[in-house]
Each structure stands twice: as C-alpha cells, then as structure tokens.
C-alpha cells in the first residue's frame, strides 16, 4: 500500500500530525477511546473525502499501560477516514506492541522516538547521538521486516538543538532503511522564529528531496505556531499540532489556529508563506472548527477563554461602543461568514448606550432614552459591585422587569429576537 501522507508532502500539500490524544495527555488531560474516536472522525470530516491524504491522528502511546493500549487500539479499529498512528520507543518490545495496536487499521502508521542530540541520547539511551542513530536504523528495519507495507515514522527528539547537517544525515540513513518521514522535534520549544526558518532551510537543503520531514514545535517561549509556519516557509509540509494547544509543558501549535491560517484566503499563501496554493486537495471546512474545539474543551476539561483565537468565547462578540458602530472595521475577517459564529453583544462595565439598547432589544424591550441612560448606569454599577466582567442577560432582563422599563413593548416570540449592531 502506498504512503498517501508522504506522497502528499512530496506534492507540496500540507499534512497534519494531530497530537491531542498523545502529546495532549502530557498537558494533564485524558481522553478515553470513545472520545479519541469522536475527535479523529470529526477532524477527518474537516478535509472532506481527502482526510487520508492530509491527516495522521496519533492515537496514543500503547506501552504506557493496558488501558492506553486499548484506547489506541479502539481508534485503529473504528476510524477509517484518516491515518491512525501509534507511538513508542525505539526498542523491539515497543515496536511489537505498536504493530499490534494498529493491526487491522485501514490506514496504519507507527512512529518511534529516537534522541537526535548527544545530551538527549545520553539521557534516553545511555549512548551518544551517533549510536542512537544506528540503533534507530536497526529498529526501522526490524519494523519493516515484520510489516513491509507499514508506514514507519521516526521522531528525532531534541533535533533542533543538534546540528541540522547531522540530523539530515540521520534522516537520509533512516529513509534508506525504510522510514517514511522524520519528525523533527523542537523538544523544549527553544527556537526563535528566525532560527526556526534557518534551521529548516539548512535541514531540507542538506537532506535532499527524497527525505520527508514533519515539524514538531513546542510552545515554551510562545513560538509554537509561528515556528511551525516558518518550517512550512522553509519547505517542510509535514506539520504537527494539537487541539487547544494541549501538549507537554506549554503545549504546541493549536490545531484550530493552524488549520484556520492555512485554510483562509488561499490566494495569499504565496505572499504570506512563500508556498504555492493549493495546500489541500480540497478546501477545509473552517465552519467545523468551533464546534470541534468546543467538544475537545468539554472532554479534556480545558475551558475555552474569551481571548482564545479562532474558537474562543469572545470571537464575534462586542461589548464596547466604538466597535459597535462598525464591527467589521475591528475584525480581521467576518466570523459569521468564515466560521459560522453569529454575532453577540455582551453587557460589561464598558458598555455604551448603543450596547444597552441592543441587548434590551434582543430581550424584547424597546427603551426610551431615559430608560437607556438609567439601564446603562445600572449595568456599570452592577458590574463593579459584583466584580464581574460580563453581566448575565437574564439579570438585565430581571432589572428591566423590576423597573417597568419598555412596558408594553416586550416581545413574546423569542425566535424573532435578534441582536442589533446598528
């Protein structure tokens, strides 16, 4: 069976290694088998019928325990839309377990972790980097001898603190042994953006076109997403991300942000990233991002914040006067058109008369000028009294009832109520 993921990268199409189930667990979260299956299927749907060309869903780390093995195995058995990966150490026992975990998957894949730097090799394998590389070659051959058709990736731990020429040589040797793609790990998230682009340019230039790379960039310094995009600009089309940025320590590039950036305004890709469009076999359905992010938030316990980009609770919301007069002027894109997120008006201490009138209208009240002024004073005083950033609309509705404001104008049909922005 051909490797559709490697073929996509060779055609300059983006591939995504999704890490919510594996690296995400190191973000102090836990997804059971059913939840992993749900996320994998829904994420596959973003790509339409082309998920097997773009998505590797890394389902887990089977050697972590029998429950983890079962959860990984469940994803491999039940998800047919995309590649299902399982991760382990570069030892025979782990490889045997990985082969068992993905056995029967429609699009199976495994990856083994190998230290790329001398310091990491000493810690992980009690040897130097050169010995670790030779061992990795042997383990790739071992896996391919057992399952010749299986796609075997190798994660090069701490690669970005090792010389790119040396990493390139290791990747060439691994490719010769049967490796599909080398996952280049900025294990501690230490690279700055300009360093990331230079590193990947040197790496790609040294390795040649036969080697496929995947960038795995952590977010310890806040550069996970931008460093991933720098890798793309340097010619690396394999990218790693995790929903809501969940991952080890400070996480990694957020899937919802990465997919939005690489799915929005494809006509600008050449100017923004130095790559040609299309990056995808078919357009990503960006309107599916918010609902899937909410699901991940619910099952992982990581709440969505008001300031989270793309999928946060504050997207397409207004609470102050100036943006209220011309919302599009204060947005980089139309969230309702692009993401399907409808506009919302929130009551805060920064509310204006327009905001108060709009929320009252949404609730079915048509207020006089004096009633609007009184209501605005109440909103500001109540917000500070409670120490609350946002006042509930049910509380505002109760206040309007108590004051008898808008009497005779309250609408009965809630389905008719709309938020007014002008």
Automatic annotation (TrEMBL):
InterPro entries: 2-IPM_HCS-like, Aldolase_TIM, PYR_CT
Entry-linked Gene3D superfamilies: Aldolase class I
Keyword Isomerase: no
Keywords: Manganese
Membrane-traversing stretches: none
GO MF annotations in UniProt: 2-isopropylmalate synthase activity
Biological process (GO), any one: L-leucine biosynthetic process
Start and end residues of each Pyruvate carboxyltransferase domain: 14-290
PANTHER family in the record: 2-ISOPROPYLMALATE SYNTHASE 1, CHLOROPLASTIC-RELATED (PTHR10277:SF9), HOMOCITRATE SYNTHASE-RELATED (PTHR10277)
Protein name: Isopropylmalate/homocitrate/citramalate synthase
Annotated source species: Rhizobium sp. ZPR3
